[in-house]
Structures are given as structure tokens and as C-alpha cells.
């Protein structure tokens, strides 16, 4: 059985929880308090961060790497595209999400006021840019839910918490976000602390 060491408010762990619930197989989640990390976290992950996935003698860290492993190990429903060209494009998108959005999470959560303000503006601009995608399609890659939707969902859930307000032109993105939040796997994936982030 897979065991996920998961931060209770950590957006990266949230991504892995979503995939585990989308797959509907057996797994165990160990809640990690990042203010009081268990000693073995640093043994499993040299960066001493969550999430970490353990399956027998396999120990993985980095949310996107964990998620691709789960997707390959339990192929239904498949979350990475089957076609190599589309899969390569999906990986490029995942990389861009990290660069333009998720690399700012730490600042948004614990940076100085000035750094937070700058990060908010940067993330906001990048989200506004992708909003038009959802005028024509339901999900990031088209009509099917995929790993890209998994990757971005925890950030969209935290917009209020990070005090990021989008403009009117971003309405299609907010509608898309509601579509993600209404999925059963997304609802099941949340910790009590995450549920309390949005009313
Ligand atoms: N790139 C990593 C980021 C993981 C990460 O930054 N985890 C944070 C939680 S928000 C963490 O464990 N921080 C604790 C620390 O750095 O002390 C991933 O995708 O898994």
C-alpha cells in the first residue's frame, strides 16, 4: 500500500491527495505538522519537505514526480495524456506552473509584506493570462480532466487565503475552478484545515 506523508495545509501535498482520491485505490495518509516535523522526514526527503510517498522500498518526493508515479502505477483514470506529444506538452505546462505560480507559494505564505505583495501581483497576472483558455474548454487540456488540473487546483482553492483577487475578465477561470472544486475526489482530498480556507 502507498503511504503519503502530507502537510495539512500544504498545496503540494494537496496535489498528491487529489490524485490518490481520483484513482480510488487503497492508500494511507500520514498528516505532517510542518511546524513540528517528524525526524524521519529529513531521512526520506533531503529537502525535509512534504509531500513524500512511500511504497515498500520506494521513497519519492516532489509532488509532480509522485503524481506521475501514481498515474503510471494505477492507470485508470489516466491523468497524463497517452500521446507522447501531448504528454511532453503537459510536462512543459507543469514546469511553467512551477516557475510562474508555485515558486511563489512560500513567499505568499511566509514572505515579508512587500515580497507577498509582489508575489500576489505576479501570480495574479499569470492567472489572468490563462483565463481565456476556459471560454472554449472545460479543463486545461480540453474536455478531459488531467494532471494539469490537479496541479493548479490547490492554488485556485487558496486564492482568498493568499489575498489574490482576479478581475472580471477572469470569470471563465473562476468558473473552471468551481468545476474542479465540485469533483468528489477534490472534496475528499481536503483536510479540515483546507476546508476552512474557503466558505
Ligand atoms: N517542489 C516541491 C515543494 C514542496 C514544498 O515546498 N513543501 C513545503 C510545504 S508548502 C514544505 O514542506 N515546507 C517545509 C519547509 O521547507 O520547512 C513539491 O512539489 O513537492
UniProtKB/TrEMBL annotation:
PROSITE patterns named among the record's database cross-references: GST_CTER, GST_NTER
Gene3D superfamilies: 1.20.1050.10, Glutaredoxin (3.40.30.10)
Domain GST N-terminal: 1-78
InterPro entries: Glutathione-S-Trfase_C-like (IPR010987), Glutathione-S-Trfase_C_sf (IPR036282), Glutathione_S-Trfase (IPR040079), Glutathione_S-Trfase_N (IPR004045), GST_C (IPR004046), GST_Omega/HSP26 (IPR050983), SspA_N (IPR034341), Thioredoxin-like_sf (IPR036249)
Gene Ontology cellular-component annotations: cytoplasm
Domain annotation GST C-terminal: ranges: 83-199
Protein family (similarity comment): Belongs to the GST superfamily. HSP26 family.
Name of protein: Stringent starvation protein A
Protein species of origin: Usitatibacter rugosus
Amino acid at each position: 500500500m502507498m503511504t503519503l506523508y502530507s502537510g495539512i495545509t500544504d498545496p503540494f501535498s494537496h496535489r498528491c491527495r487529489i490524485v490518490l482520491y481520483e484513482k480510488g485505490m487503497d492508500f494511507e495518509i500520514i498528516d505532517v505538522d510542518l511546524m513540528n516535523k517528524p525526524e524521519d522526514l529529513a531521512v526520506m526527503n533531503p529537502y525535509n519537505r512534504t509531500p513524500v510517498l512511500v511504497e515498500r522500498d520506494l521513497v519519492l518526493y516532489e509532488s509532480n514526480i509522485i503524481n506521475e508515479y501514481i498515474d503510471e502505477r494505477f492507470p485508470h483514470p489516466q491523468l497524463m495524456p497517452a500521446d507522447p506529444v501531448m504528454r511532453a506538452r503537459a510536462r512543459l505546462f507543469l514546469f511553467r506552473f512551477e516557475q510562474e505560480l508555485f515558486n511563489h507559494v512560500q513567499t505568499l505564505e511566509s514572505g515579508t509584506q512587500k515580497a507577498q505583495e509582489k508575489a500576489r501581483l505576479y501570480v495574479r497576472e499569470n492567472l489572468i493570462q490563462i483565463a481565456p483558455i476556459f471560454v472554449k474548454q472545460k479543463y486545461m487540456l480540453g474536455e478531459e480532466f488531467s494532471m494539469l488540473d490537479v496541479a493548479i487546483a490547490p492554488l485556485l482553492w487558496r486564492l482568498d487565503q493568499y489575498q489574490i483577487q482576479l478581475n472580471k475578465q477572469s470569470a471563465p477561470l473562476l468558473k473552471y475552478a468551481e468545476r474542479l472544486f465540485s469533483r468528489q475526489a477534490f472534496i475528499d482530498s481536503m483536510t479540515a484545515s483546507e476546508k476552512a480556507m474557503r466558505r
